[in-house]
Fold this sequence. Notes:
Layout lengths: L6 H60 L3 H50 L2 H13 L1 H12 L6 H17 L1 H10 L6 H40 L4 H11 L6 H14 L3 H26 L8 H15 L1 H5 L1 H24 L4
Helix pairs in contact: 1-2, 1-5, 1-7, 2-3, 2-9, 6-7, 7-8, 7-10, 7-13, 8-9, 9-10, 11-13
Amino acid sequence: MENESSPxxxxxxxxxxxxxKWGILVFLVVAVLLFKAIVSIxxxxxxxxLLSIYFYGFAGLLQKRLHLPATFSLIxxxxxxxxxxxxxxxxxxxxxxxxxxxxxxxxxxxxxxxxVQMQQSPIGSKILDYIDHSGNEGKTSAFIRHFFSSSFGIxxxxxxxxxxxxxxxxxxxxxxxxxVHLLPENAKDKGDELLDQLGDVLKKWIKxxxxxxxxxxxxxxxxxxxxxxxxxxxxxxxxxxLNFVPNFGPIIAVIPALLLALMQGPATAFLVFGMYTLVQxxxxxxTQPLIQQKMISMPPVLTVVAQVAMGALTGxxxxxxxxxxxxxxMKLTQELYxxxxxxxxxxxx
Length: 349
């Protein structure tokens, strides 16, 4: 009987266990939040690195074509691109703004019109009834808002990206040297070579996205103009920019065009959907192999999984930058694991 502990003597032990459990829970919550913030910052840094690689790639093109000095080519590259951006907004900004305003004002009525047309068919009415009674509409809209939200707010994100780009453009060698210095002595040479290879992979990805943007925007605009749809300029730019988001981007880009086409009838909507599909098929069959013939071949399933995971974790930037993240991961895996395994299996004499 003397060995049995009383409730009074067990009480401090119970309090201690409770505090330990709550401490572990708080630690896990803080760790998850810190991990999410760190991943968001890494993605913004990657966006800044991609922009700086673009400026240096454009400078290299100028240096090759015009035989200009490297520093002067970089200055000209930045000035030309900023000038083109300012000229675009100067000449097309007001038209783009008015079309975006018209599109945002028109979409609610076109969506209602689409619901009315769906109610006229048995399948469409069943789909609408299922959405209304299941409550999936609110869940889907909330998921989409989170999926395409930004990390710290769009203005803060853009400010950080511009700031990081300026630092990378000003002195990229310093940051590269700093990363290499963090590596062990026997890995410095391999790390320096690997950073150059990653830069080449990202440069080719940027080149492919730019070519795809112009291809999609131009041919989509021509197709919409031929079909007589309004807001051609805005819809073409939306299709071009969303081409940066593979798999999901083309699906999202066709939605506003389909809603506007439904105002003119189901036949027009069918033609618009066929035109968007044809442009994507041509882009995938003709231009994409030429763009990615020297890039890492990325499995589509891996890209989709990365987009969903990173989108759920960090929002818009995760969806947008999932493809270069996958490219970087595959390149690192290939160089640091696959080639080493092949070397140990089949050593070179």
